[in-house]
Design brief:
The complex is a heterodimer of chains A (351) and B (249). With 351 residues, chain A is α+β, with helices and mostly antiparallel strands. Chain A contains 9 helices and 7 strands. In chain A, helix 2 runs parallel beside helix 4, helix 3 crosses helix 4 and helix 5 packs across helix 7. Chain B has 2 domains: 130 residues, Rossmann fold; 104 residues, LytTr DNA-binding domain (OB fold (Dihydrolipoamide Acetyltransferase, E2P), Beta Barrel). In chain B, 29% of the residues lie in helices and 34% in strands. In chain B, a hairpin with a 2-residue loop joins strand 8 and strand 9. Chain B starts with a strand and ends with a helix. Classes of the chains: A alpha+beta (351), B alpha/beta (249). At the A-B interface, helix 5 and helix 7 of A face helix 1 and strand 7 of B.
Chain lengths: 351, 249
C-alpha cells in the first residue's frame, strides 16, 4: 500500500497544519508547566514536533507491515506498544540532545526539562495514539472503497454474463429446418437455394457478431428481422405473411441487439407451427411521447388444447430490457379474438 | 413385387419435396398421399392404411408423436425431425428409424431399405440399436393428452384433467368433460404431469391436488380423498405421505 500522506499533496498540507496545531498546543502546555521561558517553550515544541512528525511519517511502514501480516489482535497491540515505547524514548532523547546543543549553557534548562518531562511523555503518548488511529482509519477506509469497487466490478461482470445468456440463442429448429429447405431447394430451385443460403448467412452473421452492450439502430434490427421472416416464408410458403407499418422517424433509434427477434420467433412458434391457416404477423412502430412503441401481433389457433411454450423467450426479453433500461422500458402481451399482441415500449434515448 | 404404399406427413413444403425427390428413384415406393398437418395425416393413415409413413414431429394441431400414440394399426414409421430431442421417444413408439434434417441421400435410402425389409418380412419389433445412445433433452411437460374415441380424436388440455386411474395396460383419464381411455403407464403420468398440480395418492390413482376437497380416515391406517365432485379415491400409506409433503400438513 502506498504512503497515505506522501502520495497526496492535499493530505500533506493537512498533515502539517495538524502538526502546527499540535505544536502550539504543546508550547502552551510547556509554558503552563514551567511558567516562564516562552521562547524556549516555542522552540522546544516546534523542534520536537518537527522531529516527531518525521518519525510519524516513517511509522507508516512498520504499521502497514504489522497490519498486513494479519497478526492476531493481541500481538498487534503488543507490537504497536513496543513500537510506541521505542518511538517515544527515541524522540525524547533526540529532543533533549538537540536542545542542549542549540541552547546556550543556561542554568534554567535542566529545571525546565525536569518540569516538562511528564507532560512531554503524556503528549507523546497521546500523539502516538493519534497517529496509529489515523493510520487505522485510513487503512479501513481504503479497504472499504476497494471492496466496493470490487463488488461493483463483480456486478458488471455478472450482468454481462447474464446478458450473454439471455441473448436469444438461435433456435436449432429454425437452423436445421432452414438448412433442410436449402437441401430441398438445391434440387427444385437452385437459384432460390442460393438466395436462401445468403439470407441465412446474413442473418447468422448479424446474430453472432453483434456485442450485447453495443446498441444497434432500429433500421438494422428491422433489416435483420426481414431476413429472418423471409427465410421462414421459404419454409412455410403461403402459411406465413407479414405486414409492417414503420414510422420513419424511429429508424435511427438505438436499441439492444436481437431484442425483437424472439418476439417474432414466438409468433412463428405459436402461430405458424400450430395453425393450419395462414398466419399474418403485423408490425407497427411509432413514436409516442419519448418512447418507441412496438405493436407486434399475429393470429393463432385459439382452441384450448394448443401446446403452450414455457414463456422463457418472453421472460428473457423482459429481463434484457430491465438490464438495459432499468424500469424505463415495458413489455406486455394480450390475447383477444384469436389475435396475440405484444406491446413493447422503449425510451427514445438509449441509456 | 407389390409396391410399398407411402404417405408423407410434413408441414413444410420444401421438406416434403426432398423426400418425394429421393423416393422418385425407388420404383418399389408408391407415394399415395401428402399431408401438411397432424390431423389430416391421421385421417389419411386411417383411411388409406399405408405401409410406410414419413412423419415429421413438429406439426400443427397434432404432433407426429401424438399421432403415433393414437394409431391402433401402426404402419412402418420413419420420423423426420430437425432436432434430436425426440429421438428416444420415437423409438419407444416403435418407429423404424428417424432422420435428422437435413439428411444425406444415403442415410435416407438406408432408412427406407430398413423399413422395406421390415414391411416385407412382417416383423413387428424394430431395432433401436445404435441410435439409443443419445438421451432426450428435458422433455417439455405434457400439456395436452391425445385420446381416441372410435374414430374421433380428442385433445384434452391438462388443465381439464381431474384424476388418472390405472386400468390394466391402460389409464382412464377423468376430465371436466368426461373420461377417456388411453394406452399409457401410470409411471409416465406420474413423471410427466406438472408435479405441483398432481399427486400420486395410490398405486392406481394420480389426482389433481386442487380437486381434493378433504381427506378422511378410512378403516385403520388408511385414508380416502373426497373430491369436489364427491367421488372418493383410496389413499395408500405412501400416497398419504406424498400428500403431506405436497400440502404441508
Amino acid at each position: 500500500m502506498k504512503h497515505p500522506v506522501l502520495e497526496n499533496r492535499v493530505r500533506m498540507v493537512v498533515w502539517w497544519l495538524v502538526w502546527l496545531f499540535l505544536a502550539l498546543g504543546q508550547a502552551l502546555i510547556y509554558y503552563y508547566a514551567y511558567g516562564s521561558f516562552v521562547n524556549i517553550s516555542i522552540l522546544d515544541s516546534g523542534l520536537s514536533l518537527l522531529i516527531y512528525s518525521g518519525i510519524a511519517l516513517s511509522l507508516w511502514y512498520p504499521f502497514s507491515f504489522l497490519n498486513k501480516n494479519n497478526t492476531k489482535p493481541f500481538s498487534l497491540v503488543l507490537n504497536l506498544a513496543a513500537t510506541g515505547i521505542i518511538t517515544i524514548v527515541f524522540w525524547i532523547l533526540i529532543t533533549k540532545l538537540l536542545l542542549t546543543l542549540i541552547l546556550p549553557q543556561q542554568s534554567g534548562f535542566e529545571a525546565y526539562w525536569t518540569a516538562t518531562l511528564p507532560y512531554r511523555i503524556g503528549t507523546s503518548v497521546f500523539i502516538f495514539g493519534l497517529i496509529i488511529l489515523t493510520y487505522f482509519l485510513f487503512v479501513s477506509l481504503t479497504n472499504l472503497s476497494e471492496k466496493k469497487s470490487r463488488e461493483a466490478k463483480l456486478e458488471t461482470l455478472v450482468k454481462e454474463t447474464e446478458l450473454k445468456m439471455l441473448r436469444s440463442q438461435i433456435n436449432p429448429h429454425f437452423l436445421f429446418n432452414s438448412l433442410n429447405s436449402v437441401s430441398s431447394l438445391t434440387i427444385t430451385d437452385p437459384e432460390k437455394a442460393r438466395d436462401m443460403v445468403i439470407k441465412l448467412s446474413e442473418f447468422m452473421r448479424y446474430a453472432l457478431s453483434k456485442k450485447d452492450e453495443q446498441p444497434v439502430s432500429l433500421r438494422s434490427e428491422l433489416e435483420n428481422l426481414r431476413l429472418y421472416l423471409e427465410i421462414e416464408k421459404v419454409r412455410f410458403g403461403d402459411k406465413l405473411s407479414t405486414d409492417e407499418e414503420i414510422d420513419e422517424k424511429c429508424l435511427e433509434i438505438k436499441m439492444p441487439v436481437m431484442i425483437l427477434q424472439p418476439l417474432y420467433e414466438n409468433a412463428i412458434k405459436h402461430g405458424v407451427y400450430e395453425s393450419t391457416e395462414c398466419v399474418r404477423i403485423t408490425t407497427r412502430v411509432r413514436m409516442v411521447e419519448g418512447y418507441v412503441e412496438f405493436i407486434i401481433s399475429n393470429n393463432y389457433d385459439p382452441s384450448p388444447a394448443m401446446r403452450k411454450g414455457t414463456g422463457t423467450g418472453l421472460l428473457n426479453v423482459a429481463r434484457r430490457l430491465e438490464l438495459f433500461y432499468g424500469n424505463k422500458a415495458s413489455i406486455k402481451t394480450t390475447k383477444e379474438n384469436g389475435i396475440y399482441t405484444v406491446s413493447l415500449y422503449i425510451p427514445v434515448d438509449y441509456k | 413385387m407389390e409396391k410399398i404404399r407411402t404417405i408423407i406427413i410434413e408441414d413444410e413444403a420444401p421438406a416434403r419435396e426432398i423426400i418425394k425427390h429421393y423416393l422418385k428413384e425407388l420404383d418399389f415406393i408408391d407415394v399415395i398421399a401428402e399431408c401438411g398437418d397432424g390431423f389430416s395425416g391421421l385421417k389419411s393413415i386411417s383411411v388409406l392404411k399405408p405401409d410406410l409413413v414419413f412423419l415429421d414431429i413438429q406439426m400443427p394441431r397434432l404432433t407426429g408423436i401424438e399421432l403415433l400414440e393414437v394409431l391402433t394399426e401402426k404402419p412402418a414409421i420413419i420420423f423426420t425431425t430437425a432436432y434430436d430431442q425426440f429421438a428416444l421417444k420415437a423409438f419407444e413408439l416403435n418407429a423404424v428409424d428417424y432422420l435428422l434434417k437435413p439428411f444425406p441421400k444415403r442415410r435416407f435410402l438406408d432408412a427406407v431399405n430398413k423399413a422395406a425389409d421390415k414391411i416385407r418380412s412382417g416383423t413387428e419389433i424394430p431395432d433401436p440399436g445404435q441410435l439409443l445412445a443419445k438421451k432426450p433433452e428435458t422433455a417439455a411437460p405434457v400439456n395436452r393428452i391425445v385420446v381416441r374415441k372410435g374414430n374421433a380424436i380428442n385433445l384434452i388440455p391438462v388443465e381439464q384433467v381431474k384424476y388418472v386411474e390405472a386400468q390394466d395396460d391402460y389409464v382412464m383419464i377423468y376430465h371436466s368433460a368426461g373420461k377417456a381411455l388411453k394406452q399409457q403407464t401410470m409411471k409416465f403420468y406420474e413423471e410427466n404431469l406438472p408435479v405441483n398440480d398432481f399427486v400420486r395418492i395410490h398405486r392406481s390413482y394420480i389426482v389433481r391436488v386442487q380437486e381434493i376437497n378433504r381427506i378422511e380416515p378410512y378403516e385403520k391406517d388408511n385414508h380416502v380423498a373426497v373430491l369436489k365432485s364427491g367421488e372418493k379415491l383410496p389413499v395408500s400409506r405412501a400416497g398419504y405421505k406424498h400428500l403431506k409433503e405436497e400440502l404441508n400438513f
